[in-house]
Design brief:
- The structure holds 3 protein chains of 3 kinds.
- Chain A is α+β, with helices and mostly antiparallel strands.
- Chain A is built from 11 helices and 10 strands.
- In chain A, a hairpin with a 6-residue loop joins strand 6 and strand 7.
- The relative contact order of chain A is 0.18.
- By secondary structure, chain B is an alpha/beta fold.
- Chain B has a 6-stranded mixed sheet. A 4-stranded antiparallel sheet of chain B has the order 2-1-4-5, covered by helices on one side.
- In chain B, a hairpin with a 2-residue loop joins strand 1 and strand 2.
- In chain B, about 35% of the residues lie in helices and about 25% in strands.
- Chain C is an alpha+beta fold.
- Chain C has 11 helices and 13 strands.
- In chain C, the strands form 4 sheets. A 4-stranded mixed sheet of chain C has the order 1-6-7-8. In chain C, strands 2-3-13-12 form a 4-stranded antiparallel sheet. Chain C has a 3-stranded antiparallel sheet with strand order 9-10-11.
- Classes of the chains: A alpha+beta, B alpha/beta, C alpha+beta.
- The interface between A and B is medium-sized, with 30 and 36 residues.
- The structure holds adenosine-5'-triphosphate (ATP) and magnesium ion (MG).
- Magnesium ion binds next to helix 1 of chain B.
- Adenosine-5'-triphosphate (ATP) binds next to strand 2 and helix 1 of chain B.
Chain lengths: ~375, ~220, ~475
């Protein structure tokens, strides 16, 4: 860049603010749409993962013989490489008011941020339990209700601290923390099943490893869950790509129109520069620089508005804000640049073709 | 060998003929005035000599270089290194002030130098209008910026298309005296188009054009 | 035909790309500066490098190791980097000195004269540098290829794959050069920039540790970090740390800043960027000479010419800086995340001896990974680590060192890394006492068990200075 470029560029920008702002605005709009959509998808992906994690797992390890797994199984499985989470569970039944009632024992602390809907409080102490929301109407019980559950040698007395709702079988069961569940079921420090959350792409690998390591246990994947998880994400991604491409095309066209008008307005200037002995490249660089500036400004502004767009939508859809990954900022910049540089390419190229003698006649 | 040689220059715009076979020679350092009725092809001729336009047929030599055969970039180089243009309509960049407009020419030539640009404007008597934009200046002042701009890169060839068209007698005289002074100091060649008989008295030679060809070519006797 | 070996393909690709790039830049430089007579020494240097690489395969295999090749590569990188700085000082010695001199009121130095060597001498220098540049990388790559052919058991296929990689690059290069003749890029370089360019090619294109690893950067980073850390460490050891209980916590927290990975990383980044920034300063800030010419415009033209030349040559340097910054920060983020932190497996001391099975269905302490164990003894918790070294022997140590608070170690690549201060410690040096190394433990292997005396553990754990208030660091 030769000395003086910055001066002329600065002047052409600062004294033509209105034009630049309009061009940048149209870039902003398109970038906001694109980055909003990408942000949504990324956010939704993360959210979806979270929702799916509420199922607990994508692999289940259960005993081959007998009712229970040895207590070290969970520990062993958790040491496998691609395993992200392990939780032992115990299933059993008990009786309440003469009716059979399902009991699920698990580590309640791990449930807390799994997106289960809870009314009331999480249990704090032994003897406090959660009930599925269906039981509320079935037994006409409420928070604070006392229950006596027979089981094991002596059974136990419990207090319901909250009702949970997940839309699954858990809704009609009692959820007990592990020690309580062991008391009620009499299965001392053992598990009915160990639920494993492994990396999505390596399920088979993990299953094979568990089978090798713990011959007395059977490991299976929740195929349906895993497949559903993957295909849903894929569909969303495809949708995103299509929408992005469409918006991008529309954006380039609209920005090209704006920029085209700008360039047309500066035809005389281009002719003059040529007459002063500027090469095409030297003239081009001014317009390129302006396009880059417009693109970057539009990119940043687009990212910011896209961010709020994403949050607004997500608040509506999920009732909570989604985390927008930071790389979207760079994607926004890139989109802004691509849009404005491609859009300005043709108008400038055409303008450079004019014969300066003809332009400068000024007719 | 002459500084400028035109050989049978023809310029056609579609069916219209702007130039119908112009041939002539101009010596280095000469001051030539071109006169003629409107539409006679004066501006067209000037543009072709300055490498701003290309002839439909014929050959243009400047300093022995056949400029109608140059590539676009070489032509641009020729323009910025050898020529200074003053246009009929003063063309200035609207968003740059007077100094910056002069600096723009320096920039394309080599690099911008504010001090020099101020000097160039002072020479044409515009030291009190340095930071004014073209829209804030009169036609005469604009034209003077153009002259300062045309001379800032030490051209060997100054091409002026009615540089004093918008000026009163006073200013016209000032400009012409300035040109005369610079011309006698630096010996660049001047080709000046004018309608004004007063202006045509300056210089060394007058070309009369009519309908795309040269009707008469005579030296001026002071 | 057995399938191609991708790693080998990549190696061939990478080496050829490096060589092609260097050739292109160097050749363009020679073309632009009309010094084509140095093409011959360059080609000769390439040939000599080839011979050296070939011959090296017949040297004893304990000399020609990947580690040694890696060390030589690192050294040659440093050499090119330093040479570029030296060349810059030389070229612009007068100007740079005059700037600082005028600032401090001392007299201007005499014009420093470039030592005028004969072209023959310069030719030899070109040849030498070519060899220094290419031979170590070639050696390392060939070693890696040989290893691949063993590992994959496909013999010559790894070499063939590599050759295909080379052929692809050569084809692309010939097409590009044939079509576009991009010799103009030579204008972006002068001798200092050329040397800096070579250093950068090394930095980004030579894997020192693993040749599959693309860049030298992680090694440089680790090297610098270790250096910076050890330096601070030693200084504080010698300055003597006041062993007063009150002083200790704050003082150590303060030192912790210098021990921390952020600080070491920053220091090493600054060292690395020193030369490029010097280049930029030289190119952009140095005063222009006032040329004496017939007209002002002509003088302006000469100035513009000088200026544009400088800026042109600043461009690749600026690119290097950006590249280094990007690579550095993306890299350091990655490495911190990549640290492997195993959970300690509880073991018990049985009759004063801790017994850990070398191999059981769930683990194998000889698998090269880091294994952590915790022992509870007389109401206190102790942690220890086991890891296999490169020579296939086991190392046992406490999960703590004498210096830092006992936060323990993680594993990153082939370095054990102190979680507290981030110092990388090569696995091979485990078992050596002192400094930031984990405190070694005596052990025996009997009947498939690693046996360690609990008293040894208790005694050595006592050496550690546990810190109060260390949480404030994190
Ligand atoms: N771009 C163009 N397209 C079509 N015709 C043109 C073009 N430029 C010039 N002409 C024609 O060529 C002829 C010569 O034009 P030119 O501008 O050279 O005249 P001139 O002598 O400079 O006149 P004036 O004194 O009014 O400036 C005119 O008839 C004009 O209409
Ligand atoms: Mg005219």
């Amino acid at each position: 860049m030769r000395s003086g470029f910055y001066l002329f560029f600065k002047k052409s920008v600062s004294r033509r603010k209105g034009r630049i702002v309009i061009a940048a605005l149209s870039v902003t709009l398109s970038v906001a749409m694109v980055s909003g959509i990408i942000g949504m998808t990324a956010g939704v992906g993360a959210k979806l993962g979270e929702e799916l994690r509420a199922y607990g797992a994508n692999i289940i390890v259960s005993p081959r013989e007998g009712n229970y797994l040895a207590q070290d199984v969970a520990e062993k499985v958790s040491r496998i490489d691609s395993v992200r989470g392990v939780s032992g569970q115990i299933f059993g039944t008990s009786v309440f008011r003469g009716q059979p009632i399902e009991i699920i024992g698990l580590d309640i602390a791990k449930l807390k941020d799994r997106g289960w809907r809870l009314q009331g409080k999480w249990p704090q102490n032994n003897g406090e339990i959660l009930a599925g929301t269906d039981l509320r109407s079935q037994f006409k019980i409420d928070i604070g209700a006392k229950m006596h559950l027979p089981g094991g040698d002596i059974g136990g007395d419990f207090v319901i601290t909250g009702f949970i709702e997940r839309g699954g079988t858990e809704d009609s069961a009692l959820i007990l923390d592990m020690p309580d569940a062991w008391t009620v079921t009499g299965a001392d420090r053992q598990f009915s099943a160990v639920l494993v959350r492994a990396e999505a792409g390596r399920l088979d690998e993990v299953v094979q490893q568990i089978r090798r390591m713990i011959p007395q246990a059977e490991a299976k994947t929740f195929r349906q869950i895993a497949v559903a998880e993957e295909s849903l994400l894929r569909k969303i991604q495809l949708l995103m790509v299509i929408v992005t491409v469409v918006i991008l095309c529309a954006a380039v066209i609209s920005v090209a129109a704006t920029m085209g008008a700008n360039v047309l307005e500066r035809r005389e200037e281009i002719g003059l520069m040529k007459a002063l002995g500027a090469t095409k490249a030297q003239i081009n660089i001014f317009y390129r620089a302006e396009a880059i500036l417009t693109g970057l400004t539009g990119g940043v502004a687009g990212f910011i508005s896209g961010y709020f767009f994403t949050q607004a939508v997500s608040k509506g859809a999920f009732g909570s804000y989604v985390p927008v990954p930071f790389y979207i900022f760079f994607i926004s910049l890139l989109f802004g640049l691509v849009i404005s540089v491609t859009a300005s390419y043709l108008p400038v190229r055409n303008a450079l073709k004019y014969n300066p003698a003809v332009i400068l006649r000024g007719e | 060998m002459s500084f400028i040689i035109l050989k049978n220059i023809v310029k056609e715009y579609g069916p219209a003929h702007a130039l119908r076979g112009v041939s002539m020679e101009i010596q280095k350092g000469q001051w030539v005035n071109i006169m003629g009725p409107s539409g006679s092809g004066k501006s067209t001729l000037l543009n072709i000599i300055g490498g701003l336009d290309t002839p439909t047929s014929g050959e243009v030599f400047v300093e022995g270089i056949k400029i109608n055969a140059l590539s676009e970039d070489d032509l641009a180089c020729f323009r910025r290194e050898k020529t200074g243009f003053v246009f009929q309509q003063s063309h200035l960049v609207p968003y740059l002030d007077a100094v910056e407009n002069v600096m723009l020419a320096q920039y394309f030539h080599s690099m911008a130098d504010e001090e020099e640009a101020v000097g160039a404007l002072t020479r044409v008597g515009l030291e009190h209008r340095l930071k004014h934009r073209p829209s804030q200046l009169s036609g005469g002042e604009q034209q003077r910026i153009c002259i300062a701009r045309a001379l800032t890169n030490d051209p060997v060839l100054l091409l002026a298309d009615e540089p004093t068209g918008n000026l009163d007698r006073e200013n016209t005289k000032m400009i012409l005296e300035l040109l005369k002074k610079l011309h006698s100091e630096e010996h660049f060649t001047i080709i000046l188009v004018t309608h004004d008989p007063f202006v045509s008295q300056w210089g060394e030679r007058v070309l009369m054009m009519e309908d795309g060809s040269i009707k008469s070519d005579a030296p001026i006797n002071p | 035909m057995p399938p191609l070996i991708h790693e080998a393909l990549l190696i061939g690709f990478k080496e050829a790309a490096k060589a092609g790039l260097v050739w292109l830049v160097f050749y363009s430089y020679l073309v632009v500066n009309d010094r084509k007579n140095f093409v011959k020494p360059f080609y000769m240097g390439l040939l000599v490098s080839f011979l050296i690489v070939f011959m090296s395969q017949f040297l004893p295999s304990d000399i020609v190791t990947k580690e040694n090749a890696g060390n030589i590569i690192s050294m040659s990188f440093a050499l090119f980097l330093i040479m570029s700085g030296a060349a810059l000082f030389h070229v612009s010695g007068t100007n740079m000195l005059s700037i600082s001199a005028s600032g401090y009121g001392s007299t201007l130095p005499e014009e420093t004269q470039v030592p005028s060597l004969k072209p023959a001498a310069w030719g030899i220098i070109v040849l030498l540098f070519t060899v220094i540049f290419f031979a170590p990388d070639g050696m390392g790559s060939l070693l890696q290829l040989r290893e691949l052919s063993y590992i994959k058991g496909r013999g010559s296929m790894s070499y063939i794959s590599a050759l295909i990689g080379v052929a692809v690059v050569a084809a692309v290069l010939f097409t590009v050069v044939g079509l576009y003749k991009p010799y103009k890029i030579g204008g972006f370089f002068d001798v200092p920039q050329l040397l800096l360019f070579l250093a950068m090619v090394k930095l980004f294109g030579s894997g020192a540790k693993e040749f599959a690893e693309l860049s030298l950067l992680p090694s440089v980073q680790r090297g610098f970090m270790k250096f910076a850390h050890d330096f601070v460490h030693q200084v504080f050891l010698f300055l003597m740390v006041p062993d007063h209980p009150l002083l200790k916590a704050t003082f150590w927290n303060f030192i912790g800043i210098f021990f921390g990975p952020d600080f070491a990383s920053l220091v090493s980044l600054i060292i690395l960027l020193l030369f490029p920034f010097m280049f930029l300063y030289h190119s952009l800030r140095e005063t222009l000479p006032e040329p004496e010419t017939r007209s002002v415009a002509e003088g302006r033209k000469i100035k513009a010419f000088i200026l544009s030349g400088r800026r042109k040559r600043a461009l690749p340097v600026a690119c290097f800086i950006v590249l280094i910054l990007i690579a550095w920060f993306s890299r350091s983020e990655e490495t911190i995340m990549q640290m492997y932190l195993p959970k300690p497996i509880p073991v018990v001391a049985d009759r004063g001896v801790v017994m850990i099975p070398v191999r059981d269905p769930t683990m194998n302490v000889m698998d090269g990974s880091l294994h952590k164990f915790s022992v509870s003894y007389e109401g206190r918790q102790y942690r220890l680590i086991l890891i296999k070294k490169w020579d296939n022997t086991l190392a046992a140590a406490l999960d703590a060192c004498e210096m830092c608070p006992p936060e323990g170690y993680g594993l990153r690549d082939d370095h054990v890394v102190c979680i507290y201060c981030g110092t990388p410690i090569p696995v091979n040096t485990l078992g050596l006492p002192g400094g930031c190394n984990p405190i070694p433990l005596a052990f025996t292997i009997e009947g498939g068990f690693v046996k360690i005396e609990i008293h040894d553990i208790v005694k050595k754990w006592g050496f550690i200075k546990p810190l109060q208030g260390k949480e404030s660091m994190h």
